[in-house]
Structures are given as structure tokens and as C-alpha cells.
Design brief:
alpha+beta; eight-stranded mixed β-sheet; four-stranded mixed β-sheet; 26% strand
Length: 551
């Protein structure tokens, strides 16, 4: 009796010690192969430094297909992990828009979601010969200090299967939610300069991109000739220049990069002023940046890309009765980029990017500079060296696949490392710039894209309102141009940012649908009777041991 009481008090004491230690020590074990429940260090730091509560409303719930139920469960698990890591409370609520009681209240609630920009997705499923349609809202809304930000949960490359897109969406949950929290909680924004001197582009054509970037960064329009230098900027964006840079301004860019400044260049290799049915000649673009690029290990080629994987344009192909016959035809000078190089978080799980009159990039060996291809054309590419005739009538011709054998060509590249100045050994001691001149200083990052139009949005000229960046008014599809540029800026300006969460990879392990159909009954019986059999066996063993020791 005394020994039993002793063991009882020892167990009570051990439990008390464990509870005491658990109040000071916190750990969670992730035993999954892909570490799917382990947050990135940047996300942990973001959550640990919150100064107020975060609340998330998730509208992806209710009667969902199994694949979407998996996405819902992943959102729930991520939010649970956020709550465990946050310095403040992270609360969440799952709301089914289709489950609101009362027809009028349900319709009013769904209209309110749509007015906020939370557009539903129409799911079409076929099972046992029957086709069903269902509206789901793959959205969450993050709230912080009275401000709200919507988060799209269903993302990924739409060219893949539904299972692949859902898997990519699951991989991106942490990034999408953490990025929204970062946007709401950031206190000191980094400063991004955008050059306005060497371009003729209308400011409204950059309005959608700049409005998006302003949510995370301070934007400053830079007049390079009027600026003494670029000190104070964290990043510099050179947007579609069409005039040669002066040596003085090129020197400013050189020293900005050498001293650790981050830069993005969206530049054209050829100039195309206007196009008619008979065509116009695209001429090589002279920007006076070739030697600077070559110093960094990149060449901007003076050519045009034609890709069999291309966007469509409306073209008059004749008459239909007494009316013009307008048809949508592939315009191979507008490639759709759905081929991404490397494993950079900038392009991971990115949807297709819409390019227009793109040129190609080539690389040169540069010690200390790592180069990562970002955007690549399809394998069915043709290269035309400038000057080259560009005509709308080309879309009416049937292409010969035998002439599209240039293979995948790079049109955007990431450069990382220590950049050596173009002006090394050229600045004399008596030069006024010698006191501040650096040959090689801080490591930096650069993105060069051989398509200046990639960050330019279209405009509805009837209302004078800008379309979203990447929106094609002919097909009414919105491509991932904005996602690409925003990801690139995030990667360049935030060394340890939440964009690292985009590298998460979850292996898709699909079931054999034929075996599932054939063996469905046996597996259901196993799942139903198996636990009961194990429970009965455990009870039998326990009773047998009890009787054995009792005798």
C-alpha cells in the first residue's frame, strides 16, 4: 500500500515539474518529410514582433470537394501555427458564405464580399456521370488595427491540373498570409526610386504597379540628371527607357549598385514606334547601358522573340457579308512566358507572364556574380535580329514549326554578388568624384528583364482608367506580370523577408484512381472494422495480464 502511494505521489510531482517547465519552454516538433508545419525564420520574426492582435476571416469552408477541403485544412493548420508563434493573439474564423441562414441575408452577404473584390470561383465536378457546379470563395481577410486586407488563397500556375494548382496554393499559404500581415504592420517602409527621365511612357501606364508597390514601399520618382547621386534609396527601378543614358547618370547607377543598392531594369532591345498592316522596321535600341550590363555579366541582345506560345490579337481577315470579319489570331511577337528557370522564390509557382516585343539576354562569365534565369520562352522560339520587319499581317500566316528551333531563350535574369565598377581604373586622383568612388564594396542584387512593356499596364481609353497590370483586354485574362515584378522587388529589397516562404515545397502524392474505385469497399471495411479489432485485442491482452498477475 505504501509503495503504491509513493508511486502515486512521484507521478504527481513529475507532472507538476513538467507543467512548470512547459510554461517557460516552448517547442513543437514537425515530423513531416517536407517540414510543412515549420514556418520560415522571417515569418517567425514577423509574428513575434506584432504589437497588436491579428484576426483572419476565412471564407473557404463549408461543403467543399475533398481537394478544396485539403486546402481549407492547410489554411487552418497554418493559422494555428501562426497563433502558436505570435507575440500577440492571432484569431481566426471560418465563415461559409453559402451557409448564412436566410435567403436575403445570404445573398446580401455574398454581394458584400464581391463588392470588396472577393470574387467567387465556380467549381465544376463530374462524379458518377453527373456534373455539378458550386461557387466557392477562396479568400481570407486579414484585419489589424481596424484595417483589412484580402488574401487570395487559390493561386498557382493555371496551365497545370487542378490538383497541381491546389498543391501550389497550399505551398503558398504561409507566404500569402504572412505577406498580408507584413503589409498591414510595416512601420518603416524602404525607399524605391523609379526613373522618369529617360522614358516617354505615360505615367498612367505605370499606375497600377506603383499603386501596388506603395502598399509596401515608399515610392520616389527620380530625375537622374537633377540628382547628385542616389544616396538614400534602397532600390532603383529603371522602367522602359527609350533614350541613351548620359555617362554621368550611368556613373550614378554604377556607384549605387557597387555600394549595395538593389536595381531592376526593364529595358527593350529594339525600338518599335508604330505598326501597320504592311509593317514597320524594328531598330536596335541605343541606351548606352551595354558596357555596364556587360561588366555585370549580362548582354542585352538586339533582337526580337517570336514564340509559338503567344497571346491573341483581333485582326480583320476579310469580310463576312457586308461586315468586316474580325478573328482572334496568335500574335507571335507577344509571347506568353510559362517557363521559369532556377529555383528562385521570385518565380516559384508563378502563373504565365504576358510579354510584348521581348528581346533575349545572354550571360558572360563574371567572377563573384551568380546568375539565375527567371523568365524563359518556350522551346518553340524564333529569333529575329534587328532591323526586322514587324507586321500585323504576319499573324494571318500559318507558322512553319521547323523555323522555330531556337529553343528556350532567357528574357529575365537575377544577378547576385559583389559588382565591380565599370569605372575602375578610370577615375583619376584629381577627379572630384575620386573621394567617394568605390571600385567594389557591398554585395548587391540586380534583375534585368529584356522587355520594357512587361511592367506597363493597358488603359481603357473610353474611361481613361488603367487596367490591372498583366490584363489582356482581348482575352480578358489577367497574367502574372504584377506578381513577377512585386516578387522581384520583395526579393531584392528584403534580404530576410517573408518571400523566403515561397520556397516551401510539398510533394503531390496522388492516389491511384483506378485502384481506389476497385478496392473502395475493402478499404472502407478495413477503416471501419480495423480500429474495433485493435481495441478488442488490446482489451483482451489487458484482461489476460490482469488475471495472470492476480493469480
Amino acid at each position: 500500500m505504501k509503495s503504491a502511494l509513493s508511486r502515486f505521489f512521484v507521478v504527481i510531482a513529475l507532472l507538476a515539474v513538467v507543467n512548470l517547465l512547459s510554461s517557460f519552454l516552448f517547442f513543437r516538433l514537425d515530423l513531416t518529410e517536407e517540414k510543412r508545419y515549420t514556418l520560415s525564420d522571417a515569418t517567425k520574426n514577423l509574428l513575434a514582433n506584432l504589437d497588436d492582435d491579428i484576426h483572419v476571416n476565412v471564407y473557404l469552408t463549408g461543403s467543399l470537394p475533398p481537394a478544396f477541403k485539403r486546402l481549407e485544412n492547410s489554411v487552418r493548420e497554418t493559422l494555428e501555427e501562426f497563433g502558436a508563434r505570435a507575440g500577440q493573439d492571432v484569431t481566426y474564423r471560418f465563415i461559409d458564405p453559402a451557409g448564412i441562414p436566410g435567403e436575403e441575408k445570404r445573398v446580401a452577404f455574398q454581394k458584400e464580399l464581391i463588392q470588396k473584390g472577393l470574387m467567387p470561383a465556380n467549381l465544376v465536378a463530374s462524379e458518377n456521370g453527373q456534373t455539378t457546379e458550386q461557387l466557392v470563395y477562396p479568400w481570407a481577410v486579414v484585419s489589424y488595427k481596424g484595417r483589412e486586407l484580402p488574401v487570395l488563397l487559390l493561386k498557382g500556375n493555371r496551365s497545370g491540373s487542378r490538383e497541381e494548382q491546389l498543391n501550389q496554393s497550399i505551398e503558398g499559404i504561409e507566404y500569402e498570409l504572412a505577406s498580408a500581415i507584413r503589409r498591414l504592420t510595416v512601420k518603416q517602409k524602404k525607399l524605391l526610386g523609379v526613373t522618369v527621365t529617360y522614358t516617354s511612357i505615360d505615367p498612367i501606364r505605370l499606375s497600377d504597379l506603383l499603386a501596388t508597390l506603395q502598399q509596401n514601399y515608399e515610392i520616389k520618382l527620380i530625375d537622374l540628371p537633377a540628382s547628385r547621386d542616389l544616396t538614400g534609396l534602397d532600390g532603383l527601378m529603371v522602367a522602359k527607357p527609350d533614350r541613351p543614358f548620359s555617362e554621368e547618370d550611368k556613373y550614378k547607377i554604377d556607384q549605387f549598385v557597387v555600394n549595395g543598392g538593389r536595381a531592376l531594369f526593364f529595358v527593350d532591345g529594339v525600338r518599335i514606334d508604330s505598326i501597320g498592316l504592311e509593317g514597320t522596321y524594328a531598330q536596335p535600341m541605343a541606351l548606352n547601358l551595354d558596357d555596364l550590363f556587360f561588366r555585370w555579366g549580362i548582354r542585352l541582345q538586339k533582337n526580337l522573340v517570336k514564340d509559338l506560345n503567344s497571346a491573341l490579337i483581333p485582326l480583320n481577315v476579310g469580310t463576312l457579308g457586308d461586315k468586316p470579319n474580325i478573328q482572334m489570331l496568335p500574335w507571335r511577337f507577344f509571347p506568353l512566358i510559362n517557363n521559369f528557370g532556377g529555383k528562385s522564390p521570385i518565380v516559384r509557382n508563378l502563373d504565365a507572364v504576358y510579354a510584348r516585343f521581348a528581346s533575349t539576354l545572354d550571360t558572360a562569365r563574371t567572377p563573384g556574380i551568380a546568375k539565375t534565369p527567371l523568365l524563359l520562352t518556350s522551346p518553340y522560339t524564333q529569333l529575329l535580329n534587328a532591323p526586322v520587319l514587324v507586321s500585323y499581317n504576319e499573324a494571318r500566316r500559318q507558322p512553319d514549326p521547323q523555323t522555330y528551333k531556337a529553343g528556350s531563350q532567357m528574357i529575365a535574369c537575377l544577378l547576385e554578388g559583389r559588382f565591380r565598377s565599370l569605372y575602375a581604373n578610370r577615375i583619376l586622383p584629381g577627379d572630384p568624384r575620386a573621394a567617394s568612388f568605390k571600385t567594389e564594396n557591398q554585395p548587391s542584387r540586380i534583375v534585368v528583364c529584356a522587355d520594357g512593356d512587361l511592367l506597363v499596364n493597358d488603359v481603357n481609353y473610353r474611361t481613361n482608367a488603367p487596367y490591372p497590370l498583366g490584363y489582356d483586354r482581348f482575352s480578358r485574362n489577367t497574367f502574372a506580370n504584377k506578381d513577377f515584378v512585386v516578387n522581384a522587388v520583395d526579393y531584392l529589397l528584403d534580404d530576410n523577408g517573408v518571400i523566403a516562404a515561397r520556397n516551401r515545397q510539398i510533394t503531390l502524392r496522388p492516389l491511384d484512381k483506378i485502384r481506389v474505385k476497385e478496392e473502395r469497399t475493402s478499404w472502407q471495411l478495413l477503416n471501419l472494422l480495423g480500429p474495433l479489432a485493435l481495441l478488442g485485442a488490446a482489451g483482451f491482452v489487458w484482461q489476460w495480464n490482469r488475471r495472470r498477475f492476480a493469480t
